[in-house]
Write a structure and sequence with these properties.
The complex is a heterodimer of chains A (104) and B (132). Helices cover 68% and strands 0% of the residues of chain A. Chain A is an all-alpha fold. Chain B has one domain. The chains are: A mainly alpha (104), B mainly alpha (132).
Chain lengths: 104, 132
Amino acid sequence: MNEVLEQRPTAPNEPPPQNYLVWAILATILCCLPLGIVSIVFAAQVNSKWQSGDYTGARLASKNAKLWALIALIAGIVVAGIFSLFTVFVGLSGIGLENLDSWN
Amino acid sequence: MSPLYKTGIVVAVILLSIIYYFLDPGELIIFPKCFFFSLTGWYCPGCGSQRAIHHLLHLNLKEVVTNNMLILPGFLLIGYHYSYQAANRKFNLTLPNVLYKRSTPWLIFAIVLGYWIIRNLEVVPFTYFAPG
């Protein structure tokens, strides 16, 4: 009995660690960097590892899912900020915003 | 999540909704262009989402789907995630915790990758998946 408890220090009844899938989805569909997809893969590992009894692995995957969702969202905000600053700068320097259309 | 975080997120969502309601990202150049698209010339699964949100706030669903097909199901799924427990309590239902099902993240992964590929194909039925 004790051995079983020692092998499984965490009660299977407790809720699984957060998989941060909401943030992974938001990062993937709102912002263009493919980093959100990395977070989706870690979210998948949280669910499957927890259900197969690998609680340590599930917790690690949860940490990674959070990390990559954060990286994706922060990178998205930084890139958006740089783009907006750049557009304002180009506008102020008189090159003309219409030139940016050629980026399409 | 702490109350401060929650308040911050709600305020940010309201502010962004106001901006995206009144300004059209399809017309104005000040909205950031997709980084991946600028770099590669290929559409990513998130391309068109700013225009889609603008049209979603105007309830113009046809334009939403034309610009990005993942926005609507994505928002519905997230809305479900934050309301199913309350619905279960109130109406005595047993709606499942979908996002924590084993296959859900893999299904989303497959849909995102599939959408990424087909919206870049320049063959007729697939060109409808490209934004715009």
